[in-house]
Amino acid sequence: MSSSDMKIITVIGSGLIGRSWAMVFASGGYSVKIYDNQPGQAAKAMAEIRKQLEELEEARMLRGELTATQQLALLSSYDDLAQALEGAFFVQECVFEQLEVKQSVFQDIECVVGKDVILSSSTSCLVPSNVFSKVQNRSRCLVSHPVNPPYYVKLVELVPHPETAAHVMDATHTVMTKVGQAPVRLKREIDGFALNRVQAAIIAESWRLVQDGVISVKDIDLVMSEGLGMRYAFIGPMETMHLNAPEGLEDYMKRYGVGITRVLTSFGPVPDFFGEGAKSIVNEMDELIPSEQQHLSARRERRDQLLMGLAKLKKDH
């Protein structure tokens, strides 16, 4: 493949994640073709992206070396799948999170593209062996799972199908790094990948502590935002332990391993997220932030502003 063939990425699906991927890829200088099977949707997405890029430029938070106008010039929209895939070396799928939908999309894509084109899915909860089960050549398939919102939270989990070729993982890692994301490689597929498994552990214990009357919803969130989260924004749990004992990780476990094991064995069963007990937790959350759209929208906007500031801080250090 010549370098001129390595410039076009096709994004399939123009919802929130599709638009975010398109912005990320364009920020890295790739030409991006956006496809949506709903006529006119991809064009609508372009208008939404234009507005976002202009706002980001004004806030001096635009990613990449190019101006908003230059990035917009790299984007194009399509209602025709074959036209959208023409010339692409990499395809990022962002359609509805339903197995049959994704399987049929990849079948359609495979009929159109050459054998070396990388097929990547944004799925957050479906494993590659299921997503790509109807694809003939599975060695070029993988999951590239972003974190919402991908423009500010840069992690991407690269999850291989059992048949994924090593050079496909490498090439995807290179693309993600080039566009400024932070890719991590899973060595094999597992339900929930890494991020959602760690997140599920945090959700479960937080839920149990509130349900058992140990702490309030407001305060368990502070445990993370003003405690663990302060460190975890820059260093992970492994390095945290390594730095928290005079002689590193092994020393940490000598000192605290028995205590950690004792606490872990005291953990309750998987909580009931749906029964009567759950209602009081939901009500407590609603009292803090009501579930009406105007309240949630305002908090989401605040979240994105804070993430933008944190992303800037991390970039400058």
User: Using DSSP, what is the number of strands?
Assistant: 8
| Main sheet makeup | 8 strands, mixed
The run of helices and strands is EHEHHEHEHEHEEHEHHHHHH
The CATH homologous superfamily name of the largest domain equals NAD(P)-binding Rossmann-like Domain
Radius of gyration: 22 Å
- Percentage of residues in strands: 5-15%
Taken together, the total number of domains comes to 2
The CATH topology of the largest domain corresponds to Rossmann fold
Question: By helix and strand content, what is the structural category?
Answer: alpha/beta
CATH class of the largest domain: Alpha Beta
Return the average pLDDT rounded to an integer: 95
Give the number of helices: 13
Protein name: Crystallin, lambda 1
Family: Belongs to the 3-hydroxyacyl-CoA dehydrogenase family.
InterPro entries: 3-OHacyl-CoA_DH_CS (IPR006180), 3-OHacyl-CoA_DH_NAD-bd (IPR006176), 3HC_DH_C (IPR006108), 6-PGluconate_DH-like_C_sf (IPR008927), 6PGD_dom2 (IPR013328), NAD(P)-bd_dom_sf (IPR036291)
Pfam families: 3HCDH (PF00725), 3HCDH_N (PF02737)
